[in-house]
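forwarding from the other thread:

> can someone predict this with S-adenosylmethionine?

sure thing
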Amino acid sequence: MDSVNSGYHSDLSDKDFERLSQFIYTNYGIKLPMNKKIMLQSRLKSRLKENNIPTFKEYCDFVLKGKGGEAEIINMIDVVSTNKTDFYREAIHFDFLKQHALPEMVVDQGANYIKVWSSACSSGEEPYTLTFVLSEFKEKYPDFDFSILGTDISTRILDKARTAIYPMERVDVVPLSEKKKYLLRGKDQENPQIRIIPELRAKTRYARLNLIDDSYNGIPKDFDLLFCRNVLIYFDRPTQEKVINKLCAHLRTGGYFFLGHSESISAMDVPLKQIKPTIFQKI
Ligand SMILES: C[S@@+](CC[C@H](N)C(=O)[O-])C[C@H]1O[C@@H](n2cnc3c(N)ncnc32)[C@H](O)[C@@H]1O
């Protein structure tokens, strides 16, 4: 029997929605107002099915009382998180790197290594865009090198980032000269795909990290560039301020910090000065 499609699961009650949304908000900072109930219900159906659990109430008990262990919490967060991203998303940031930050750090200040953290990296488009930009710069200044750390809460999305295979249309925005150098073309004509070349994949590493955690143990403290784009919107203002302060502890003084287009630090007590609307420098 296909229990999910037969309606065997009943609906997610308001009470169980509240229990789940409270847990997700407290532990992961992701706000789920009541108007997200149908979305949550539909995304969680696959988790009930996978665990062979007939009702949402039992699933809530399973997750919230710890019977599913950490593994099921991770799986639940995987289906709840929104991972929209793109290559060259918010291109103004990459222009700023090319025209200002990289010449300043490498040419003016003589840096020979740039460390970048993409702190909500989703399926890898943001870190790989950074590898394109940094590699283009390295062509002109071969003595310099770089590495990129990508972290995210979702293990499913991190696996995608590590694999680095994308549908062909996702890279329409990548300049042709960069496509030729940095992308491999799959053989399947029906399902055209590309893969990032191994040399650039090797410049990246990925790890699971919850931005809500009290501290980011094991993460270096001396990043030159820190991207935290389009994730703070899911958190409330006090949480955003705490997260930015924790992130800044991992950015060197003078390093640059990038937020998403609808995010800001206005009225926050954080060690950043604004350079452009979503570009900041650590002070
Ligand atoms: C909309 S995507 C943004 C991706 C990319 N930074 C960009 O701007 O294109 C938001 C990402 O934040 C991640 N995320 C949500 N809550 C998080 C948390 N508490 N800690 C770390 N990552 C989180 C999601 O899994 C998702 O991949």
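Residues 92-108 form the longest helix (17 residues). thats all i got for now
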